[in-house]
Amino acid sequence: METKTNQKRTVLAVDDDVDLLMQIRLQLEAAGFNVITAESEREAEKILENTRPDLAILDLMMENMDTGFTLSYHIKKKDPSIPVILVTAVTRETGFEFDISSSEERSWIKADAILDKPIRFEQLKREIERLVK
């Protein structure tokens, strides 16, 4: 299932859950991606100073309740062509859902996809393939 186009793609994965971050790294590397990980907004911002990922996977709630939104905004401000996937347990924990299909929500949620935790790798890979053509 590994393709030559994936071998050169770089994914930035940011999550304060070290176990989930390791799982994402291992699965994406096995699928042929280069993976850079960060455990905090500050660490991700430092990486983004010198690196342009082909895609970013961001946890929504890390240091702050909106860390993922903030990072997504910074990534899109720097380079709007970088696809961003937000992953969150908000729906499971609070029942609140985000819907980026409306232009109103897309105006403040600077993400291309939102996935609920727990993440199924097949679902994540499908979104990555859709966003990174």
Please render the helix and strand layout as text.
Blueprint: H1 4-7, E1 10-14, H2 18-30, E2 34-38, H3 41-50, E3 55-59, H4 67-78, E4 84-88, H5 90-94, H6 103-108, E5 113-116, H7 121-131
Parallel strand pairs: 1-2, 1-3, 3-4, 4-5
Structure, described:
β3, α4 and β4 (about 85-90) form a beta-alpha-beta unit. With about 130 residues, this protein is of the alpha/beta class. The chain is globular, with a radius of gyration of 14 Å. The longest helix is centred in the N-terminal third of the chain and has 13 residues, at about 20-30. The chain has one domain (about 5-130): Response regulator (Rossmann fold, 3-Layer(aba) Sandwich). It has a five-stranded parallel sheet, sandwiched between helices. The chain has helices at about 5, 20-30, 40-50, 65-80, 90-95, 105-110, 120-130; strands at about 10-15, 35-40, 55-60, 85-90, 115.
